[in-house]
Write a structure and sequence with these properties.
six-stranded parallel beta sheet, about 20% strand, alpha/beta, globular, Rossmann fold
Length: about 160
Amino acid sequence: MKNGQIVVYYGEGRGKTSVAIGRGIRALGEELRVVMIQFLEYRNNKETDLLKHFEPEFRLFRFEKEREFDTVDDAAKEVAIELKNALYFANKIMDTGECEVFLLDGILECVNKGYLTMDALAELLKKRPLSMNVILTGDSLTEGLLEIADAVYEIRVEK
C-alpha cells in the first residue's frame, strides 16, 4: 500500500484552487478517486463546472449557499453552520476512506477566520487513512499545521 501525504498550498496569490484541481485531475489519470470540498463560496465556477464531466470519479461538494441577509451577523451565523456541516461531511469521507485524494479547498481560511478550530482540523487529519492524499488550501498557514503536513507550498505574487 502506497502512503499518502498531507499537502498544503497557501498564500495571498491566486492559483491555490487551480493547483488542487490539477492534482485531482492528475490522480484521475492514475485511476484514483477524488473528492473535493469547497469550504468557502467561490465565484469562479469556470474551473469547477468542468469537473462535472469527471463525475463520479471526481466529486465536488459545496456547503456555503448564496444568501441575502439584512445583517452581517445573520450571514455569519449561517456560514458557521454550513462550514460545520462541511467539516462533518469531511469527517465522514475520512471515516469511509471513499477516495484516494481528498481536496479541502479553503479550509485554512475557515480556521483563520474562526469558523473552525485548528484542533478540529488536526482531529480530521488524524483520521486520514494512510493511503489517502489530503490537499488543503487557504490564504495563510495555520499555526500547528507545519508540523502535521508532509509538504507545504506557499503561493505568492512576485509582480
